[in-house]
Write a structure and sequence with these properties.
about 140 residues, mainly alpha, 4 helices, Hemerythrin domain-containing protein, coiled coil
Length: about 140
């Protein structure tokens, strides 16, 4: 069973938008540090961004999978393909975050990390739009 906020499009969208806005702002900061060649600070911020995705978006994703998606499928089994696609989005984000962490630990800050951070924002934005269409009060 999911919490009441996850089933209402307005509150759910607000959760999504807050996390995405934070990620975008962190991306701007790490890009600015990279342009200034302040790679010591960029790596610190990159780890903060990884933590942001792990504790905000990916924990939210786990809660959706454990509650919201099961509830939506119970209410409408025809949503199976849409739910499967949403879970795949979550798995893609998990993969990207894990890849970023591995690069940080083995190579330090690289241009690829910045590209992956931007990719995460785009994947999550598309995912959120698709997900919000499935919520009952949409």
């Amino acid at each position: 069973m999911s919490g009441p906020g996850l089933k209402h499009v307005d509150s759910h969208a607000a959760i999504h938008e807050a996390a995405l806005n934070e990620a975008r702002e962190l991306n701007r900061l790490v890009a600015k540090l990279a342009r200034a060649k302040r790679f010591d600070k960029a790596i610190e911020v990159a780890y903060i961004i990884v933590e942001h995705w792990e504790t905000r978006t990916l924990q939210h994703a786990a809660a959706e999978e454990e509650g919201l998606y099961k509830d939506l499928l119970d209410e409408n089994p025809n949503l199976k393909d849409e739910i499967t696609a949403l879970i795949r989005d979550h798995n893609m984000m998990r993969f990207l975050v894990k890849k970023i962490r591995q690069i940080l630990e083995t190579e330090g800050f690289t241009e690829e990390i910045l590209e992956l951070f931007y990719t995460l924002v785009h994947v999550d934005h598309f995912h959120n739009l698709q997900e919000e269409k499935l919520l009952p009060d949409h």
